[in-house]
Design goal:
The chain is an alpha+beta fold. The chain folds into two domains: 3-40, no CATH class; 44-194, Lipocalin (Beta Barrel), CATH 2.40.128.20. The chain is 17% helix and 51% strand. The longest helix is centred in the first third of the chain and has 14 residues, at 3-16.
Protein backbone atom coordinates (compact mmCIF):
# COMPACT_ATOMS: atom_id res chain seq x y z
CA UNK A 1 0.00 0.00 0.00
CA UNK A 2 1.42 3.40 -0.93
CA UNK A 3 1.83 6.16 1.64
CA UNK A 4 -0.79 8.34 -0.06
CA UNK A 5 -3.33 5.50 -0.08
CA UNK A 6 -2.62 4.73 3.57
CA UNK A 7 -3.10 8.39 4.51
CA UNK A 8 -6.38 8.41 2.58
CA UNK A 9 -7.67 5.38 4.48
CA UNK A 10 -6.71 6.95 7.82
CA UNK A 11 -8.43 10.23 6.84
CA UNK A 12 -11.66 8.48 5.86
CA UNK A 13 -11.64 6.36 9.01
CA UNK A 14 -11.02 9.44 11.13
CA UNK A 15 -13.85 11.35 9.44
CA UNK A 16 -16.31 8.62 10.38
CA UNK A 17 -15.46 8.78 14.09
CA UNK A 18 -17.78 11.09 16.08
CA UNK A 19 -16.08 13.90 17.96
CA UNK A 20 -15.18 12.98 21.49
CA UNK A 21 -16.26 15.10 24.45
CA UNK A 22 -13.41 16.44 26.55
CA UNK A 23 -12.81 14.42 29.71
CA UNK A 24 -14.50 15.70 32.84
CA UNK A 25 -12.28 17.94 34.94
CA UNK A 26 -11.41 17.21 38.53
CA UNK A 27 -12.37 19.86 41.12
CA UNK A 28 -8.73 21.01 41.20
CA UNK A 29 -8.63 21.34 37.42
CA UNK A 30 -11.94 23.23 37.42
CA UNK A 31 -10.60 25.65 40.05
CA UNK A 32 -7.48 26.19 37.94
CA UNK A 33 -9.64 26.96 34.89
CA UNK A 34 -11.79 29.36 36.91
CA UNK A 35 -8.69 31.13 38.28
CA UNK A 36 -7.19 31.45 34.79
CA UNK A 37 -10.44 32.84 33.41
CA UNK A 38 -10.65 35.42 36.20
CA UNK A 39 -7.00 36.42 35.70
CA UNK A 40 -7.41 37.01 31.97
CA UNK A 41 -10.48 39.26 32.08
CA UNK A 42 -10.10 43.05 31.67
CA UNK A 43 -11.73 44.93 34.52
CA UNK A 44 -12.19 48.29 36.20
CA UNK A 45 -8.47 49.07 36.19
CA UNK A 46 -8.27 48.61 32.43
CA UNK A 47 -11.24 50.95 32.03
CA UNK A 48 -9.34 53.61 33.98
CA UNK A 49 -6.71 53.62 31.23
CA UNK A 50 -9.36 54.11 28.55
CA UNK A 51 -9.07 57.89 28.80
CA UNK A 52 -5.65 57.55 27.11
CA UNK A 53 -7.10 55.97 23.96
CA UNK A 54 -7.30 58.25 20.93
CA UNK A 55 -5.17 60.76 19.03
CA UNK A 56 -3.14 63.41 20.85
CA UNK A 57 -0.90 66.40 20.21
CA UNK A 58 2.08 66.38 22.55
CA UNK A 59 4.39 69.10 23.85
CA UNK A 60 7.62 67.87 25.45
CA UNK A 61 10.15 69.55 27.74
CA UNK A 62 13.47 67.75 28.21
CA UNK A 63 16.14 68.59 30.79
CA UNK A 64 19.61 67.17 30.08
CA UNK A 65 20.93 68.31 33.48
CA UNK A 66 19.36 69.67 36.68
CA UNK A 67 18.65 73.41 36.54
CA UNK A 68 19.51 73.54 32.82
CA UNK A 69 17.15 75.22 30.35
CA UNK A 70 14.52 72.85 28.98
CA UNK A 71 14.64 71.72 25.37
CA UNK A 72 11.11 71.88 23.95
CA UNK A 73 9.53 70.02 21.05
CA UNK A 74 6.12 68.92 19.79
CA UNK A 75 4.79 65.65 18.44
CA UNK A 76 1.84 63.29 18.20
CA UNK A 77 0.60 60.19 19.98
CA UNK A 78 -2.06 57.66 19.02
CA UNK A 79 -3.23 54.97 21.47
CA UNK A 80 -5.38 51.91 20.69
CA UNK A 81 -6.59 48.91 22.67
CA UNK A 82 -5.46 45.47 21.54
CA UNK A 83 -6.24 41.88 22.58
CA UNK A 84 -9.78 42.52 23.69
CA UNK A 85 -9.10 45.60 25.80
CA UNK A 86 -6.22 44.05 27.75
CA UNK A 87 -3.35 46.26 26.53
CA UNK A 88 -3.25 49.87 25.39
CA UNK A 89 -0.58 50.43 22.72
CA UNK A 90 0.59 54.04 22.28
CA UNK A 91 2.70 55.15 19.34
CA UNK A 92 4.62 58.44 19.69
CA UNK A 93 6.25 60.43 16.86
CA UNK A 94 8.10 63.72 16.80
CA UNK A 95 11.61 65.14 17.01
CA UNK A 96 14.07 64.90 19.86
CA UNK A 97 17.38 66.76 20.00
CA UNK A 98 17.11 67.50 16.27
CA UNK A 99 16.47 63.86 15.28
CA UNK A 100 13.29 62.05 14.26
CA UNK A 101 11.78 60.34 17.28
CA UNK A 102 9.57 57.26 17.47
CA UNK A 103 8.47 55.50 20.65
CA UNK A 104 5.93 52.90 21.69
CA UNK A 105 4.44 51.93 25.02
CA UNK A 106 2.26 49.00 26.03
CA UNK A 107 0.19 49.69 29.14
CA UNK A 108 -2.19 47.55 31.12
CA UNK A 109 -3.13 46.18 34.51
CA UNK A 110 -1.85 42.83 35.73
CA UNK A 111 -4.68 41.13 37.59
CA UNK A 112 -2.23 38.74 39.28
CA UNK A 113 0.33 41.23 40.61
CA UNK A 114 -2.44 43.82 41.12
CA UNK A 115 -0.22 46.46 39.56
CA UNK A 116 -0.44 48.76 36.58
CA UNK A 117 2.29 47.72 34.14
CA UNK A 118 4.02 49.43 31.25
CA UNK A 119 6.81 48.75 28.78
CA UNK A 120 8.56 51.34 26.61
CA UNK A 121 10.78 51.18 23.52
CA UNK A 122 12.06 53.92 21.24
CA UNK A 123 14.50 54.56 18.43
CA UNK A 124 16.96 56.29 20.76
CA UNK A 125 17.91 53.10 22.57
CA UNK A 126 17.97 49.32 22.25
CA UNK A 127 16.56 48.30 25.62
CA UNK A 128 13.06 47.79 26.95
CA UNK A 129 12.01 49.81 29.99
CA UNK A 130 9.57 47.92 32.21
CA UNK A 131 7.58 49.75 34.87
CA UNK A 132 4.89 48.90 37.40
CA UNK A 133 2.96 50.85 39.98
CA UNK A 134 -0.33 52.09 41.39
CA UNK A 135 -2.99 54.76 41.03
CA UNK A 136 -4.05 57.07 43.80
CA UNK A 137 -7.49 56.55 45.37
CA UNK A 138 -9.52 58.06 42.51
CA UNK A 139 -6.94 57.20 39.83
CA UNK A 140 -6.16 60.76 38.86
CA UNK A 141 -2.43 60.08 39.25
CA UNK A 142 -0.65 56.87 38.17
CA UNK A 143 2.90 56.40 39.48
CA UNK A 144 5.17 53.64 38.16
CA UNK A 145 8.82 52.78 38.74
CA UNK A 146 11.41 50.58 37.08
CA UNK A 147 15.11 50.21 36.51
CA UNK A 148 17.17 51.46 33.59
CA UNK A 149 20.83 51.87 32.70
CA UNK A 150 22.19 55.40 32.54
CA UNK A 151 23.89 55.71 29.12
CA UNK A 152 26.52 58.12 30.46
CA UNK A 153 27.69 56.19 33.53
CA UNK A 154 26.58 52.67 32.66
CA UNK A 155 25.08 52.43 36.16
CA UNK A 156 21.63 51.10 36.92
CA UNK A 157 19.28 53.82 38.13
CA UNK A 158 15.64 53.96 39.16
CA UNK A 159 13.22 55.55 36.72
CA UNK A 160 9.90 56.96 37.92
CA UNK A 161 6.99 58.04 35.77
CA UNK A 162 3.97 60.02 36.96
CA UNK A 163 0.90 60.33 34.75
CA UNK A 164 -1.68 62.90 35.81
CA UNK A 165 -5.10 62.61 34.16
CA UNK A 166 -5.91 66.31 34.16
CA UNK A 167 -9.27 66.03 32.40
CA UNK A 168 -10.89 64.10 29.53
CA UNK A 169 -8.79 65.96 26.96
CA UNK A 170 -5.50 66.57 28.79
CA UNK A 171 -2.86 64.43 30.47
CA UNK A 172 0.62 65.10 31.81
CA UNK A 173 3.51 62.62 31.86
CA UNK A 174 6.55 63.35 34.02
CA UNK A 175 9.78 61.31 34.09
CA UNK A 176 12.30 61.29 36.94
CA UNK A 177 15.62 59.64 37.67
CA UNK A 178 15.94 58.60 41.32
CA UNK A 179 19.34 58.32 43.01
CA UNK A 180 20.36 55.90 45.76
CA UNK A 181 19.28 58.39 48.43
CA UNK A 182 15.78 58.52 46.94
CA UNK A 183 16.13 62.01 45.48
CA UNK A 184 14.08 62.36 42.29
CA UNK A 185 15.31 64.62 39.48
CA UNK A 186 12.84 65.56 36.78
CA UNK A 187 14.17 64.88 33.28
CA UNK A 188 11.08 65.15 31.07
CA UNK A 189 7.55 66.49 30.98
CA UNK A 190 5.01 65.74 28.26
CA UNK A 191 1.57 67.36 28.05
CA UNK A 192 -0.92 65.66 25.77
CA UNK A 193 -3.94 67.43 24.31
CA UNK A 194 -6.62 65.35 22.62
CA UNK A 195 -7.12 65.91 18.90
CA UNK A 196 -10.76 66.41 17.86
Amino acid sequence: MTLSLLLGVVAVAGAADPPKAPPAMTPDQQKMMDDMTKAMMPGEHHKRLDSMAGRWSTHVKLWLAPNSPAMETSGSMEAKWIMGGRYLVSHHTGNMMGMPFEGQSVDGYDNLSKKYVSSWIDNMGTGILNLSGDCDADCKVLTETGEMIDPSSGNRIMYKSVITFVDANTYKYEAYSVDAAGTATKSMELVGTRKH
